């Protein structure tokens, strides 16, 4: 199994990302940086990877389109978040299309 790295300080980095996401969602038009990771899980970018690590858990079904989904992303997502991967976007709480 090949895994990508997650947050170096899982609790602190997830808290920081959550606060940044909360600011972005509560203040439309405000641009925030999510820079706790050195790189995203390719082909996902840093921001998408950070959002998944921060918000996804075992109660958050995730669907990723074919261009975004590969074995490494799937394995890393399952390992780090325990989020179930679904095959149909309408079953997902988080859907990524690229």
From TrEMBL:
Signal peptide: none annotated. InterPro entries: PhnH-like_sp, Phosphonate_metab_PhnH. GO terms for biological process: organic phosphonate metabolic process. This is Phosphonate metabolism protein. It comes from Escherichia coli.
